Amino acid sequence: MDTLVRVTDLSRRFGRQLVLSDVNLCLQKGEVLGLLGPNGAGKTTCLRLLSGLLAPTTGRIEIEGMDLARDPIRAKAALGYLPERPPVHPELRVDEYLTYCARLRRTPKREIDEAVFAAKDRCGLSNSGGRLIAKLSKGYRQRLGIAQAILHKPRVLILDEPTEGLDPFQMRELRGLIRELAENCGIILSSHLLPEVQAVCDRVVILHEGRVQLDADLADNQPGNVWRVKLGGQANAERLADLPPVAGAVAIGAEGFQIDLFEEAGSADLARAIVEDGLDLLELVPERSDLERVFFDLIGVEETT
Ligand SMILES: Nc1ncnc2c1ncn2[C@@H]1O[C@H](COP(=O)(O)OP(=O)(O)OP(=O)(O)O)[C@@H](O)[C@H]1O
């Protein structure tokens, strides 16, 4: 596997406040990694460290094997970065701004037009070259922010809250773009929204108070055909386990049960079997994955058991 980013024992202090502590993570080629955490968890600080804007207090960041602290120019050449607020200049037109960014990236003069054309094409801005940035919608500004980040075809793309403030339609479009871009590089993005990360990422790292709480593959984090029910009447786990669609049942709390269904069965089969058995069905919800449980526990949403 192609490891694009390797972070080892990273920490950062601001004065006496330890904002990030012992962060370890890896990014592989083709992967979209979500850095998920509530406000103030340290996501932006982590991404600023990864992009080389901020120096770590301790720890090491390698970009394609290059040490970001020792070989910053070469390592940063492999990085594209979209900060929380896209660094666009409202008084410029899209083409002017991207040309300016390409110059900052030291793109050879004869390659600038082609780089600007390709970045606009990837980000759905092909018809917007002459538009004044001040007049672009939030979604288009975000696209422009991504376009400046990919102008030099970086192998690693760092996106800080890329869909923040977008409407649902713009969000869906941007997620599609992120997935497309990941075909040629690796992407780390931050978000405080679990569904956002579930929709676009392959892997998630949950940060809380500057520490990694979970590093998990999202494909491995599907709870499967497992359901939570709340029942009235004389319910017990043995009785539930005897129902035709049920492979196993465990009691959780006073009236709650976690129920594992056979592969071919669905929630409707379970509901029918419970009611036909004479039990009162008070609640039936899909079981949360480990990821959902860790995340909701951290942000303080209580589990109903
Ligand atoms: N330059 C700075 N100087 C001092 N403290 C800072 C600085 N930057 C961040 N912090 C502090 O570090 C902590 C983490 O902030 P950070 O912006 O990294 O979190 P975040 O997870 O990105 O939050 P949000 O989702 O609200 O953007 C906060 O307590 C913040 O006040």
From TrEMBL:
Task: List GO molecular-function terms, semicolon-separated.
Answer: ATP binding; ATP hydrolysis activity
| Entry's transmembrane regions | none
ABC transporter domain location is 5-234
Q: Name one Pfam family in it.
A: ABC_tran
Cross-referenced CDD domains: ABC_DR_subfamily_A (cd03230)
Alphabetic keyword roster: ATP-binding, Nucleotide-binding, Transport
Stored InterPro entries: AAA+_ATPase (IPR003593), ABC_transporter-like_ATP-bd (IPR003439), P-loop_NTPase (IPR027417)
Origin: domain of life? Bacteria
Q: Which family does it belong to?
A: Belongs to the ABC transporter superfamily.
> Which PANTHER family does the protein's record reference?
ABC TRANSPORTER, ATP-BINDING PROTEIN (PTHR43335:SF4)
In Swiss-Prot or TrEMBL terms, this protein is called ABC transporter ATP-binding protein
Organism source for this protein? Thiorhodococcus minor
